[in-house]
Design brief:
Metallo-beta-lactamase, Chain A; 5 helices; six-stranded mixed sheet; 199 residues; globular; alpha/beta
Amino acid sequence: MKVIKLNSNPLAYSCNAYLLLGDWNTIDDMNTVIDTGADGYLISQIESINTGLGKVPVDQVIITHNHFDHTGGLKSLVANYKPKIYSALNVEGAETNILKHNQEIKIAEGWCRVIHTPGHSTDSICIYCEKNGILFTGDTTIHIHTDDGTYTKDYVQSLKLLAELDVKIVYPGHGSPISSNPKEMIKNTLKIVRNSHII
C-alpha cells in the first residue's frame, strides 16, 4: 500500500488528506482518499499522481468524522471523480454509505477495518490496515501527556480498542505521521486518561 499525504491549502484551516494506492496500481485496487481537507485544493495534486492506467483516480472517499476541515473538499472530489462516499454518519450533500464498527473495507490492494472511536466526536472512526500495521486516526487523540484533563467513558473505550492493535505507524488528521513506537504511545495515553477525570 502506498500512502500519499496530500498538501492542504496554506490559506485555510484544514486536516491531513491521504491518497491510498496499491503498490502496483492494478485495476482491482481501490484508490481511496481518507478525509478531504477543507476545500478542493487536493484535486490538482491527485491529477499529478500516477493512480493507475485506465483507472479512476479516486474510487472512494472515507470520512473519519463530519467536521468541516475533513469534509470541505468532498464536493470537488465528487464533481471530478464520482467516488463512493463512506462515513459513520450521513455527510451533508453526499450519498453516503454508512460504516459500522468492525466493518472490513477494501482500500488500495488490501482490506482494512473500521473502528468506531467516539471521543473527539460521536461519529469519529479510525481505519486500521492490519497487514501493514497502519492506523488512520482522524482527530482521535492518541498522545496525551498529563492527567489533568477531563474525558468521556466513550473515549476511554476507544483508546482500549486502539491499544489492542499492532500499530506500526499512525497517520493522524493533523500533524506528522507517528512511527516511533506508536503502540506504546497509545498504551501510555490510555493509562494517563484512566488516571484523569472521567465523565
